[in-house]
Prior knowledge:
The complex is a heterodimer.
Chain A lengths: L1 H26 L6 E8 L9 H17 L7 E8 L4 H11 L6 E5 L1 H14 L3 E4 L13 E4 L3 H14 L4 E7 L2 H16 L3 E8 L7 H9 L4 E5 L2 H13 L5 E4 L6 H7 L7 E5 L9 H9 L5 H20 L3 H10 L3 E3 L2 E5 L5 E3 L2 E6 L5 E5 L1
Parallel strand pairs in A: 1-2, 1-3, 3-4, 4-5, 6-7, 6-8, 8-9, 9-10
Antiparallel strand pairs in A: 10-14, 11-12, 12-13, 14-15
Chain B lengths: L1 H26 L7 H18 L4 H23 L4 H21 L1 H4 L5 E2 L5 E2 L2 E2 L3 H23 L2 H11 L1 H6 L4 H27 L1 E2 L6 H14 L5 H17 L9 H19 L12
Antiparallel strand pairs in B: 1-4, 2-3
Amino acid sequence: MKKLIWTLVILVVVGVFGGRAWWLYQHQEIGDNIVKIGAVLPMSGIVSDSNKKIVATLNVAKDIIEAENLLGNQRISYQLEDGKYTVKDSLSAFNKLIMDKPNAIIVLGDVPVYGLKTRIKENKIPTIALITGTADITKHNPYLFRAFHANNVLAEKNSKFLLDKGADTVAILRIKNNYGDDMANTFIEKFEQDGGKVLINESYAMDSLDVRPQIAKILNTNPKAVFITGSGTGYIAAFNQLKENAYAGIVLTESAIMDAEVYSHITNNAEGCYFATAEYNFEQVPTFKDRYQKAIQEEPDIFTAFTLMTMQVLTEAIKRGGTESEEIRKALLSLKDFDTVMGKVTFNADGELYLDSLSIKQMQPDGTAKIIKE
Amino acid sequence: MTYVLHQLIMISIYLILVYATNLVTGLGGLMTMAQAAFYGMGAYVYALVALNMPVGFVASCGISLLVAGLVAWILSKVVLRFRGETFVLATLAFQMIVFTILDNWEGVTGGSYGLSEIPRPSLFGWEVSTVPEYVLLSVIVAALITGVFWVMLNSPFGLSVRAVRDNERAAESLRISPQKQLSRAFVISSVLASLAGCLFASYVTYIDPTSFSLTESIFILCILLVGGSGNIIGPFLGVLFMILFPEGLRFLGLPDESAANLREIVYGTILIVLMYYRPNGFKGIYSVK
């Protein structure tokens, strides 16, 4: 009896998997007019919060591209795979993607991009590193392009801004991962080169709820400014607990503060803080904002803007060069001052993004951010 | 095809890791939480040697195994004073220490940036540079380890470790030294885990501390418990199930917005059901208390 039950269970499982795989095989989009774009995203795991808006942006961008015939009779087909923000799973996701021979790939996050660098080069597929800040990550890889502001570029802007404000001593409170470490390291290098002094460099775990010990150490050094960088509950706790301690100096942060979910947990405690960010204007794609809001009932933010920009540059590259991977790569490199939702963008020979729209903003009491320095 | 080959490589690497864990947990009856630490140690030492000294794959692996063996031997002097939950806690502490070192010693390990551009293996003139070649290498190594484990299982050493697991006092009365035998098992297990680390680092060509965290130790232990410990077939079934099942779920074609979370729910539910009906795993002869 037991054997029979197990056999039945196995048969049902095999039937479900096999049937579904067969159905998918029968219904797959094939043909010369299909442009395949693969994406390795953190769809589950600790940094999966951003996934909803990224997927929504990709889908809305696809609808607009097809509705406006931006690629002629060609249609876009996405294949999204979960990389869980780990090297191991991203590698699996990437290997599954390349089974379908995608024309281009999008990879989100520093850890997955690092883990896939060799594979991207070996498979010669143009890949956009989305929301990936680590400096020089695209170097020595002709197929890798960045769609985010690099940490060293932000460091330059932040350093100059703080010194102009007279804040020549800074304490850093960063997330403990390669993104946070790189953000802190590039800032320290630039700031100390410019004549400032970093008094203390503390870290927190992404999921921590209490950063009071780090804040106590920071306040003990009496810095003129505190630079908070990162994401997750630790980032939220940093703002709330710094305010709890009535810190009166300058608070510098990054564009993560504009994430609606993050801001809803910080609200007034973020008032007055500064951050360097790229400018974006959704009016550049007139119907995008409405369609996006309709899709997920949320305001689009900077991460939405970078994702939309990614699709804009890929569409343009395919329009210019066709669907061959090598041609897409060359076309991406040929984009000079190309108009996107992020303003005019250019990729240099290393695939590094150059944006002409970096500014310093300050958080207002109503949760909006106002440009205070171009 | 690359995807299937990649899964074969991962199966081979995890097979080595799980057989290594089986030695301490299945045969020795001690639940170790430090496997990912030795796995990471192997990967990092291999990467550092391969990046800084042109001594070749075999020598880099050799140095890596030696370091892991030495550390494991020293560690065994401390952790093997404990049994049960205390042993778990002691190995857990070691896992945390290694992770913290890997994550913070920027000058050597690269800190959270990790180490990149690790050279691919070259064995006696054979450049292992493509995925099929790597499958060959990893499958050969995994098969060798399986053979070694099979021999060890019924060897005097394997029998004495099992005797210690079942009744330490009775084993002592037969002049078996529990400390000595468990220490040997622990060292061999750590050396094998570090070998898996060498394979992983040279295959992926990039390593960072997150690949060797406590979660990874728990995952390795889960594979062993799901497959069944104390024998040769259980770990093999566990690896097949735990690696291939979540990958198989990728082919269900669930809606993009919820696919990942639904897959995790299905995966978790099946594991719970499995543990309920098969508490010793698919083919376990010994259940960890």
